[in-house]
Every structure is written in structure tokens, then in C-alpha cells.
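Sequence dictates fold. Next comes a concrete instance:
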Amino acid sequence: MKVLVLGSGAREHALVRSLVADPVVDAVVAVPGNPGIAELADCVPVEGGITNGPQVVELATAHHVDLVVIGPEAPLVEGVADDLRAAGIPTFGPSARAAQLEGSKAFAKRIMAEAGVPTSLSHVCTTLDEVGEALDAFGPPYVVKDDGLAAGKGVVVTEDRDAALAHAAACFERPDGRIVIEEYLAGPEVSLFCISDGEHVIPLAPAQDFKRVADGDQGPNTGGMGAYSPLDWIPPHLVEDVVERVAKPTIRQMALLGMPFVGVLYVGLALTARGPRVIEFNVRFGDPETQVVLARLRTPLAGLLHAAATGQLEEVGPLHWHDGAAVTLVLAAEGYPAAPRTGAAITGLETITGETAYVLHAGTATTADGLTAAGGRVLSVVGLGADLAEARATAYHALGKIEMPGGHHRSDIALAAQNGQIEVPR
């Protein structure tokens, strides 16, 4: 099998790493990829970028690929999967219509309501007056979400009403701006990836990520500063419950509406005193959770994704997982997330060797002077271990070998879970 992967971040590096390890995969092509992916796959550019569907189809055809895996959300919302399927190329990723589950928070809320999915109460607002009324109706903490795509940073959760209004006003500056105001869901969060072929659903192992930039969940939201798996503290049968009450009803509803969902449905959950509630849907693998989930997956990845892309998921047997734990830490550029500074030199990667720690590139570039930072989130460092404590120690030890002026990371990823300090409301 020859696989083409669209994207250039650490999520795509993790996908490529797992695909290359699948015995049925002969080669992987990445578009556009990054310096780390280039060590494993053939990285090629595409005219107009990865949202240019016709050019992606032309490239996939020229390389005679058997499967295309779309990493980021933007090409999905733009309909690249539709173009590929129209050309007869098996594609893992939903159509543009189905991708509205991430492309529009309001659309996702509508589908949840129609499917009977447990979620938060919400209001869709198109004016600041409506936002103010919704904020007052729910009270603090205020949850304000940009209706459209925002690269994981369109959500503000704050006790400050003025800050909530300011975020809404900034979102309204976009064309056709809409805001979703939601009730705050109190409880620890869980990320669950559910693979679907449009009818059947197979869940992956749950993970937990860390959105705030600083220790103790302080500071602004980011695209994610770290993650870990497994979650030993979650209630028994949580995954099965979410599949039956959330994923399957959503997949059925999408099929009924004539927009079957093929790909991965990312279910972001809060475990509240009322039970699990959906915070959001995404329509692609989450970053940085993918880095730890795939690190633990023993089942070959290409066969699983190809089965979903070709409507054969029912033929896939139970998934198999490595024992132990995985932790990923994000090394971010100076100034991230507000105004990341690029160009900082990165050294020390060659000192991270062995099978229990490795580095995934997120925002890097190769220059005449060597490897440099080229984005906000620059690297993901993955550590494996027999348990969470060992995986954390491995990851932080490896991260300590990397030098990048101005770089920063959180020091408390998975610490509460390691210390048994996470409580699920009853």
C-alpha cells in the first residue's frame, strides 16, 4: 500500500510514523510534510496548498496512492475529501458537508440535539446584545466559542464578562461571524477518537490534553501543550457509554441527513456530575492527543484507516494496545500563543535515542544554519513507560536535552493523574 498524508504538524508526523511501521505500507508521501517527516517519507509541495482539491487529486494520481489520510481540518471543510473520492481514491476524512461538525459549532449543536447527544445548553448569537443576554443567562464562568474554524484557539473560558464580550467582538469582525455561548461544564475533560466508515464505529483509547499555556491550567488557550494516555481514573465502561450515546447516534444522524461521516470523529468530553457531556466535535485526529494514542496502538494503522475509507470497518477485529503509558510534551516558541517568534535555533535532537523517547516535528524548518522554529508549537516530545510516572520522567528527561532560545513548555503535564488527584464529580 502507498499512502499520502496531508499536513505538516506533529499530528501528521505521528500518523506517518505509525503508517511507515505498518507492514503493508510500502511508501508514504507527505504533502507538504516537515523536516521530521522527511526522514520517514517523501515530502512534496502542492500548488495552492493542501486546500486545493484538484491539485491534491492530481498529485495523488501521479503517485498512484492507495489511500489518502487528511490531517488538518481546513482541507476537510474545503471539500478536498470530496474531490479525492470523486476521482475514485480511497480517502480517510469526511466530506465538506460532514466536516461542518467542526466547521460550525452551531451545526454541531443542531446535530447533537437531533441525535439526543448529551451536551451543554447553548445560544447562537449574531450580535453583541445577544451575546450579553446569553452571558447573563448562563453566568460565569463564561464560555464563548467562535462558530467557525479557529485552529483550536477560538474558545475563551473566563470569569471576566468584559473579556468574554471582547472575544465575541473580535469573532464578529470575521465575515458572517457567529458566536456560540454555552453553559460551563464542570469536570475533568477526556478526548476520544472514534473511527467511522459512515455506519460502524470503532473507538481508540481515550486521552487527556492540556489547552492552557501555563502550569496549573493558567493563561490563554492554545492548540494544546501536552497529552497522556491511558486514563486510569475514568469511570468503568466510559468508552462504551460514549460510543453508544454519542458517536453512534451522531453517525446515524449524519447518514440520515445524507452526509455520511467517514473518518475520525473527535469527541471532546467533560465528565460532569450529570454524567459525560460533549464539549465539542472535531472531524480529524486531535493534536497533541494523536501523539500519545498512536504511540500505544499495536494494531497496524493503515489497515484500520483503509477499512474506514472503503466501508469495511465491520471486518476489523478488536484493536490491540501496548501496555504502559505515553506522555507528550509540547515545546512552544517564545511568545506563543499570542505572537510566536520564529527563527530560533533548535539543537540537541540527535541526543534523544532509544525506543522509549522520540521527537515529532510540529513547526520546524531547515535553514543554512540548521533546524529552526517555524511555528508556535515547534516540537512534541513523546515518552513511553510502564506507567504514567515512568512515561512522564522519560518525556521530561528527553525534553531537557533540547535547546531552543525562548522556548517554553508546561511542567505539569499528566502530573495530577500520576498523583491520583483527578476526581470525577458524582
